[in-house]
Design a protein that fits this description.
mainly alpha; 13 helices; elongated
């Protein structure tokens, strides 16, 4: 990494004082000077906002040297820009920094610094920068996704697609690779999308979200998927089903999901479990290991 200079020391001391207020604790020093990449990304954007290009480049260099990947770096930059934009919009809507801090649950030091960075930019400018960051992120992910789908076709292996708020992009990518197969897990798309995926040989998996009170649309989608293309999942430790929301999800909670999905297809949870077990064996080629489920 680039050498730590007196300027860096002076800057870090100022940050600790701004963070701590009247009394400085060891925890405060650790929180500000931590090598956590999120802290350094925030500091880099702050340096850019103050037109300190050398400092920003030093921080960028150290981030990359410490092993932070370009993809992680882009995600963190996007997240910090979203924070800066949110605070800028809240301030313009008449909220003071204390109200902003309470609403966002972010430390007052970050709120103040983000507000200072945002003070140098208009809302429209920040939105344009964010839009460009989103496009770069999408292009990178699309390129990686296409490469993985092509490899799956070449090796005749199933893919597990995590589609979150990217239904159109994921379906388009699948359509570009004839013969690709697999499962869309934690499915949240439309019935039309599910139908097209099933036509292309995909399985559709449903998890804890299917049990939620406001998930009528999702349950209607699940009812439209043929049983021989259904899979059950928990996505643990995330998305715990009703009645276990607010807890750490576990694999044995899958029964709660089966109890909701089975009646949608006019069967018992045991009957559904038998079908989805066989579907999983077909999908992942486990017939040699689990011949009784073929």
């Amino acid at each position: 990494a680039i050498n730590y200079s007196l300027y860096n020391l002076d800057n870090d001391l100022k940050k600790v004082i701004a963070y701590s207020g009247e009394e400085i604790t060891a925890h405060d020093v650790g929180a500000v000077l931590s090598v956590n990449p999120e802290n350094n990304v925030f500091a880099m954007l702050d340096a850019i906002g103050r037109n300190r290009k050398d400092e920003a480049l030093r921080l960028l260099y150290n981030l990359l040297e410490s092993g932070t990947t370009v993809f992680s770096l882009l995600r963190m930059i996007t997240g910090q820009l979203e924070l800066i934009l949110s605070i800028k919009e809240m301030k313009e809507n008449g909220m003071n920094l204390t109200q902003v801090q309470k609403k966002l649950g972010v430390h007052q030091f970050r709120v103040k610094k983000a507000a200072a960075v945002g003070g140098n930019c208009s809302v429209s400018y920040l939105k344009n920068i964010l839009s460009e960051a989103y496009q770069v992120d999408e292009h990178i992910k699309t390129g990686l996704f296409d490469g993985q789908l092509a490899l799956a076709v070449e090796l005749d292996l199933p893919v597990i697609v995590h589609d979150r708020e990217a239904h159109g992009a994921c379906l388009d990518a699948v359509c570009r690779h004839e013969g690709v197969r697999g499962v869309f897990h934690g499915f949240s798309g439309s019935a039309e999308m599910a139908k097209e995926l099933v036509r292309r040989g995909f399985f559709i998996a449903f998890g804890g979200a299917l049990t939620y009170r406001g998930a009528d649309r999702l349950r209607a989608v699940a009812a439209s998927v043929p049983p021989d293309r259904l899979l059950l999942e928990t996505d643990c430790p995330y998305m715990p089903p009703v009645p276990l929301r607010g807890t750490v999800n576990r694999s044995d909670n899958i029964l709660h999901i089966a109890r909701v999905l089975a009646p949608l297809h006019g069967m018992t949870p045991e009957e559904l479990a038998d079908i989805t077990n066989r579907n999983a064996v077909r999908l992942f080629g486990l017939d040699a290991i689990l011949p009784d489920l073929c």
